[in-house]
Amino acid sequence: MSATDAPKPARPRWTRKWTGMSASFAVGLALTLFFAGMAALSLVWTPYNPIGLDILNKLKGPTLAHPLGTDAFGRDVLSMIMTGARNSILVALVAVVVGAGGGVPLGALAAARGGWIDNLVMRSTDLAFAFPALLTAVIITAIAGPGAVNAMIAIGIFNIPVFARLTRGSAMSLWKREYVMAARCAGRGDVAITLDHILPNLMAVLIVQATIQFALAIVAEAGLSYVGLGTQPPMPSWGKMLNDAQTYIFQAPYLAIFPGLAITLSVLGLNLLGDGLRDLLDPRIRRER
């Protein structure tokens, strides 16, 4: 047998897993890291002050000095998009944490106890679904006034039933597995089994759902800011930039194009990342490959 015919040593499992990543995962990860890096950079540096006015240079198209142009108040569009990325990611992150922090325990409780507790949790989630994020934001705004914090709360409340239903449905099938029955026979309680066996086996599906809800939260935040219920002036927001661009859509179309592209690409990146993570973390899909 020649050296070229000799069997090649098998790669480690983790190497096989990550070298088999899909193109959607790579593109999604690149887009997500790009916008995350833009948001992080805006914390320490932007080309111009994102809320600084320069009336003499208003509505200037893209130039070397202002790569994405300026708005009706002379503000640099690139600096505003960078700062808007930070605000959008912060609102979406808090909303997903609120949704997962409230929904996962409720779903796990419903699956573990069943009976009237399960019915109570599920009917409560049905009620919550009757109030979408925009309607919840309107109610909260009527009580506490508009703002980014209220947008976080509104989107987070809408995410709770999503995570609760997902956790409950996935956990119900896990409670019928042999290792859970063995843990019951060993005298383990519902809380111990949930923490040691149920939740660890749900992490993959929860991570994928979190990326999807993160993308939806960015869209929801942009929508709330567009109607004046999200991030308030003078802080830039992608949704507010789209709202302001309506007046100048023919005179300066770039004012709508660039924030629209930011929303589209960030959501596309998160959706592709979620699809790629599903392919990587789902053992059935890996076996098919």
Could you explain the architecture of this structure?
By secondary structure, the protein is mostly helical. It has one domain (23-36, 70-174, 204-288): MetI-like fold (Orthogonal Bundle). Helices cover 71% and strands 0% of the residues. It has helices at residues 13-19, 23-42, 77-113, 115-129, 133-144, 148-174, 178-185, 190-226, 238-245, 254-281, 283-288. Helix 5 (133-144) packs across helix 6. The relative contact order is 0.16. Residues 9-18 have low confidence and may be disordered.
Give a short synopsis of this structure.
By secondary structure, the protein is an all-alpha fold. It is built from eleven helices and no strands. It has one domain: MetI-like fold (Orthogonal Bundle).
Notable characteristics:
11 helices; 71% helix; mainly alpha; MetI-like fold; 289 residues; elongated
